[in-house]
Prior knowledge:
Mean pLDDT: 94
Oligomer: single chain
Number of strands: 7
Protein name: Sugar isomerase
Number of helices: 10
InterPro entries: RpiR-like_SIS (IPR035472), SIS_dom (IPR001347), SIS_dom_sf (IPR046348), SIS_GmhA/DiaA_subfam (IPR050099)
Pfam family, one: SIS_2
CATH class: Alpha Beta
Number of domains: 1
GO molecular function, one term: carbohydrate derivative binding
Keywords: Isomerase
Helix content: 40-55%
Shape: globular
Amino acid sequence: MSDESVSARRFARESKAVLDRLTESARDEVARAAGLIADCVRADGVIQAFGTGHSQAMVLEVAGRAGGLVPTNRLSIADLVLYGGDAPSVLDDPLLEREPGVAARLYDLAAPHTQDLFVIISNSGVNNVIVEMALHAKEQGHKILALTSLAHTRAVPAGHASGKKLADLADVVLDNAAPPGDALLELPGGGAVCALSTLTGVLLVQMAVAEASGLLLAAGERPPVYVSANVPGGFEGNLELEKRYAGRIRRTAS
């Protein structure tokens, strides 16, 4: 029997309590986020989602998944190799996301339209490439929706020369309520285990997508939504929906 202070039961109980609180406390910001998403879809825009490290899990919640919106595109540091012609060895550098100029290259490789919405995801909100992407997108006139931990970002110094953090640059911030360092359960003698941000991030992303879809339906527009490719006709139907955004959304093997 594990110590009750560090156990499956305690993590389930405490994480569920955070999810329950977020359902109510994030309502206004989710509504604002949904407005940005719905406006982007109405304007024939694409939702450009970007994150590094484990935040890429949330990018996958936004871009190209069953039950999600079709006009979505995943940006990744790996795009330097997949679309930019760099040697695969560049990805061996664990500090690549701190290099100046990387975000601008990723932006150019995606060639976004002005009406595209940028969804930028980072628990800390301070890594150089994250802030650089937000700065660049803002300079190009894009709206920015951030998913971050305000508790974490307020507890650490800025990592970009501008002194800015992701939350400073966003039009709407969804706070994932994760503690500094993300881990929820404190260990005896120091440290903590069991990350929270994935659970809360999924909740916030899907709440925003649901609310945006409701806004589109209320305006008499059917949301362009993916059907699972593993149901009859799903793959073919998805290809038809994607034609409207040809050349603007990437669907590579992953």
